[in-house]
C-alpha cells in the first residue's frame, strides 16, 4: 500500500527536494508566523479579500463624486472633479516615488499598508472638517464683485 501524502503539506519533506524559491517562501512564512502575522495560502480566499477591498475603495470613490454633485452648484461640478482628478494624479506620482523610497528604507510593506488603511479615515476627517453639516456651497453669480 502506497503511503498517503498529507494534503496539508505544502512543501516536500526534505529540504534537498526544495527549489531555492520554495526555501525562501518557507522561511518567509515561518518569519511571518513568528511575528504573529497570518498568511492566506488559499487562492480563493485571497481573491475574495482583494475583491472586498476593491469594492470598498470603489464605494468610497463613488461617495466622493456624489459629495461634489450634492454640495456644489451644477456649473462648477465638472471643474471641481477635474481639479480633484489632477491633484490625485500628481499625488499619485509622488506616492509612487515615495513607495520606492519606503521599500528601500524598510524592506517591508507594513508602513505602506498602514498608510493606505489610515488614508480613508483621514479623508473622511478632512471632509467633515471642511463641511461638517453637508451644506451646499453658496456662490455669488458670475460677473458680480464683492
Q: Which helices and strands, and how do they pair?
A:
Elements lengths: L19 H15 L8 H29 L5 H30 L3 H21 L16
Task: Provide structural commentary.
The chain has a domain at 45-130. Helices cover 65% and strands 0% of the residues. It has 4 helices and no strands. The protein is elongated and about 80 Å long. It has helices spanning 20-34, 43-71, 77-106, 110-130. With 146 residues, it is an all-alpha fold.
**Mean pLDDT across every amino acid position:** 85
Question: Biggest sheet: strands, sense, closure?
Answer: none
- How do the helices and strands follow one another from N- to C-terminus? HHHH
User: Beta fraction of the residues?
Assistant: under 5%
Amino- and carboxy-terminal Cα gap = 93 Å
Rg: 24 Å
**Which segments are poorly predicted (pLDDT under 50) over 5 or more consecutive residues?**
none
Structural class: mainly alpha
Rough outline:
elongated
Structure characteristics:
mainly alpha, 0% strand, 146 residues
Quick structural gist:
The protein has 146 residues and is mostly helical.
Amino acid at each position: 500500500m502506497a503511503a498517503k501524502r498529507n494534503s496539508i503539506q505544502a512543501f516536500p519533506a526534505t529540504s534537498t527536494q526544495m527549489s531555492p524559491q520554495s526555501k525562501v517562501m518557507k522561511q518567509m512564512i515561518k518569519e511571518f508566523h513568528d511575528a504573529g502575522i497570518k498568511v492566506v495560502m488559499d487562492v480563493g480566499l485571497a481573491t475574495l479579500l482583494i475583491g472586498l477591498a476593491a469594492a470598498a475603495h470603489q464605494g468610497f470613490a463613488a461617495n466622493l463624486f456624489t459629495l461634489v454633485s450634492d454640495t456644489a452648484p451644477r456649473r462648477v461640478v465638472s471643474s471641481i472633479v477635474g481639479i480633484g482628478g489632477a491633484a490625485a494624479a500628481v499625488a499619485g506620482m509622488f506616492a509612487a516615488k515615495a513607495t520606492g523610497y519606503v521599500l528601500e528604507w524598510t524592506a517591508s510593506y507594513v508602513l505602506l499598508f498602514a498608510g493606505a488603511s489610515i488614508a480613508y479615515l483621514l479623508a473622511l476627517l478632512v471632509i467633515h472638517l471642511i463641511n461638517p453639516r453637508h451644506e451646499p456651497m453658496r456662490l455669488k453669480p458670475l460677473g458680480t464683485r464683492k
